[in-house]
Amino acid sequence: MENQKHCFALDLKNDKALINEYIEHHKNVWPEIIESIKGSHIENLDIYLVENRLFMIMETNPLFSFDKKQQADENNAKVQEWETLMWKYQQAIPNSKPGEKWRLMNKIFEL
Hints:
By secondary structure, the chain is α+β, with helices and mostly antiparallel strands. The chain has a single domain, classed as 2-Layer Sandwich (Alpha-Beta Plaits), CATH 3.30.70. The chain has 4 helices and 5 strands. Strands 1, 2, 3, 4 and 5 form a 5-stranded antiparallel β-sheet that branches. Strand 2 and strand 3 form a beta hairpin. The longest helix has 12 residues, at 16-27. The chain is globular and about 45 Å long. The protein starts with a strand and ends in a 7-residue tail after the last strand.
């Protein structure tokens, strides 16, 4: 098995000051969050921004599981604290379910 890429989208509140704060938080992500990401078999994670739309590319190794990552995050107080803080800046993209943040995107083209 090989690594897989997963792409997600999420919006930020359309407020320049909040967007700048969000960027600053991501220049110094808490070590516990980095540890949580790496510990769940995520090999690489990049976040891009255009206007107020975020795009995340996550590369995982074959041991990664969305269910295990979600369960680990739910049981990690520091991750929950980070997610609560980030929700100050984030807003669901259209047609999201209540409480749904990062939305998994479907690949429609590959070269």
